[in-house]
Amino acid sequence: MMFREMRRNKQLLSAEETAAVLEKGTSGVLALAGDDGYPYAVPISYVFDGNKLYFHCAKSGHKLDAIRRCPKASFCVIDQDQIVPEEYTSYFRSVIAFGTIRELEGDGEKRTAIEKLARKYVPNDTAEGMEAAIQRDWAPLCMLEMTIDHMTGKEAIELVKAKKAQ
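Above: the chain sequence. Below: its structure as tokens.
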């Protein structure tokens, strides 16, 4: 599949800047092919490990049904959205990733993924604290992995100009 080129490519973030947005962000919107042809977009926490995105979810529900029906997805993270009323615009920065999601099956890969998520959201926890939390939530835990096929970052032209002026 060929992905569209970004129309306003002067606003394209570099690969490093795009990755930085994903590393810094704490939530995004996962978009899936939902029931009856309706798109299903759901806010969700995630972790990006430099290559893939990981999410956790319940072992049943709309999200998992959609992924099992069609594993293709997009994921959007908004890094900045500063409204500038006097200019009738916003100074934004965001990333969209397209890829395929799979449910992690083996305990080892599921464990690796939940540890990445735990380290991101509770970085100062002790090993014992993390272990207790993982064990408490292990039975109902489902982990998802998104392999990224295409990813772009974009920012407001005003932010592009400000970087060049530095």
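The chain has a mean pLDDT of 90.
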